[in-house]
# Entry
Amino acid sequence: MNEKENGQNRISEAELIETLQNLNKYREKIAQVKPEDFKPTGELFQIEGTSFQVQISPEATRGDLLYFISHIEDLVKRKLRTVSSEEEDKLKGKTIMNHYKGNITPGNDIIPVPDFEKAKAFVPRQHLVFLTGAGVSAESGLETFRGEDGMWTDQERVRLASAGAFYYDTEKCLDFYNALRMRIAEAEPNEAHRLMAALEKDYEVTVITQNVDNLHERAGSTRVIHLHGELSKVCSSDNRTTCIKEYPLDAPIRIGDKAEDGSQLRPSVVMFGEYVISTDEAVSCIREADLFVVVGTSLKIHPAAGLIRYARPEIPKYVIDPAEIDPCVQLGFTHFKTTASEGMRRLVETLRATSLRGADNSCY
# Structure
């Protein structure tokens, strides 16, 4: 068995850490150069202590190179977090970027800077993860759930939203959900929904929502995880993970409407007394986040309330809500104490101000 077959030529964790340390040293060295003294020659050179070769055009600024190095560091950090995965078996030597379509490989390939349209294809965009609650949809006219005068302060509505009511008081349960579905049909996405969707232009965005409406999707968000299900869909009452399909919000679900398996059709949501199915997917997503933002949720309900603890401590974290959110404060979140839309405007401004894209940022 040769070296490649027995896996001895794989990237080790130590190699990744060493590469990351050397990239950081090189970035700090470049940062000490005055912007006016940064004069690239356009020649190919090696980044000290790494196997990366770079060619920088004479028109590039110091900020251009710093921006690019920071993204290379992000790539190595991501690889370091998954160094034990089976995927690592496919990566040989120090070809750290090989799994990104082969666009960046150490050794002989030339990485052009500052052709940022091409550079964006070389490096993964930062993963921005939102955890949203009823406060986001409140600006669209929908009731909150656990806020003051929220829906679940009415015990009769809590009863009608339960699995027990569906099986033992089916008609009233369906009437309750049909009324809620109609209100969602009449609502429109607000600015907070639209700003989250617009961030997909610059980030890999995932929205994890406790809301059962479809306003994130209607605003343009393309990756939404619904912790508590979706009222725009129906499913089997024998097994709520099957026979799931879209169902018009303005079309009531009646007793006698059947799923494909012959069972009574029901809303595809998590009723009181049922467990949340998509928690593992949400946890995995938050663990891999580069930025994490909580918007419009009191964080009083588990398992959603516990999700914030899966965000890595070193990443930027924000919470947008008019109320004090003690769990977030304890974990060092930056708090925009305002409404969802106003908070999202401030978040977008903050992200723009801290971005290194193509700018010679003074923080260096």
In short: Residues 127-354 form a domain with the Rossmann fold fold (CATH 3.40.50.1220). The chain has two domains: 13-122, 127-354. The chain is about 35% helix and 15% strand. The CA atoms of residues 299 and 356 lie 32 Å apart.
